[in-house]
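Lab notebook, bench 4. Still working through the backlog of constructs that have no structural model yet. Next entry is a single chain of 431 residues. Request: give me the structure tokens for it.
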Amino acid sequence: MKKIEYRKSLVMLVALACLCSACGEDNETKGKNGKASDSKITASLDESDDSGEEEKEDGNSEETATSATRETKPTTDHVTEVIDDTDASQEPVEEDPSDGKKKDSDDSDPKTDPSTVPVTQPSYLGAANLANGGFATGNGTYNYFIVHPEDGILAIVQETRATGSKLEMYRTTYKPGVVLDSLILAGDYLYFREDALDGEIFGIRRMDLNTGEVECISDGAISGVTVCGDSLYFCRDSAIVKCDLDGYNERVLFEAKHSAMTAKVAFCIADGKIYFSDPTNFATGGMFFGKLYSMDLDGKNHTEIPVEAEACNEEIFFSDGERIYFFGNTDSDGTGYYSCKVDGSELEMTAKAAPTSRNISEDVDVVATSDELYVDKYGNGHELLYTGNIRMGKIVIVGDEIYFMGPDDSGRSSNVTKRIKIDGSDETVLG
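Model written out:
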């Protein structure tokens, strides 16, 4: 009897031990699950708090679930060529890297590195740069200009404004009388014109400034290459053509009609309007003269500008948004350099024969002959700035500097590109 009771007691003890062991495992499991759950909640709250703080710093009122889902907007190091386009909000809309109003960025951002901060204020491009050949352009970070490494060869150089360091970006193959001009910055691309066949056929090329790749996006008897907003404008033969920045979707906005030889159309763009001269009257020397017109950027609202003058299609033609400057002809005064308001009023003759070129940037008005360069600052009158051979009197303004071409003192037959500040200092031969 005692033996049986002993066995029963032993069985009960074993069962009780098993029960206690099972309860202990269950409590341990519940404790692990509870800690994991608390950990997840804590992490989620931490992320939500960080996200809220970052959004307050960024000035973004939109709520996000976690900081991992937040998108970062890409930035660009290049500034679009300053050409007015009200339809594309382009006057100009992209921020200059040297603009002090830009939002503060992290110290690790290379654009805030003191060694890369531009040494001058944001660049202002001359309104007549392209009318003068466009052999230089730039923005707050870089200058781009044409140099003459050898006879029959031209090259494009990129210069860092902060350091003055230079990098050759593109070089033509050898060709007597080679043409390379019309430099235009648009986003991360540099556009330019290069002759392809004896100076009669030109290609419009664009270079990806991130990769250095160059592609030809259009060709023909091309002149007057201009970028405005998200479109490219140029004259081919006797027509003003518009296309996308990659060369696609070409459409003719205006085509000159006359019985004489093919004549290019002089045009410019300012404040969302295209101003142009219809080359109807042939003159000696292969030039055409015609009445002034305006039209919208899509070619609509073709309107004659009521002015008692005709403009030449071969000479300088540009607008600063207030006036149109051109080489023209009137019944009373004959041929000369004229200007009028964009509505045709206040017609004025600047000179009968000289200057051969003119350019305007901000409060600076620059005129040049083949051997003299004058600058008018803030309307105080033109003063002599430079004396020397200036090729065709062509002048390009980038920031506070004037670019021009002249003879090479080394004895080569080609010209060299030179530069001088608007205040007359730092005359430099660029090559």
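Notes after review: Helices lie at 2-58. Residues 1-121 have pLDDT under 50 and may be disordered. Flag for follow-up if needed.
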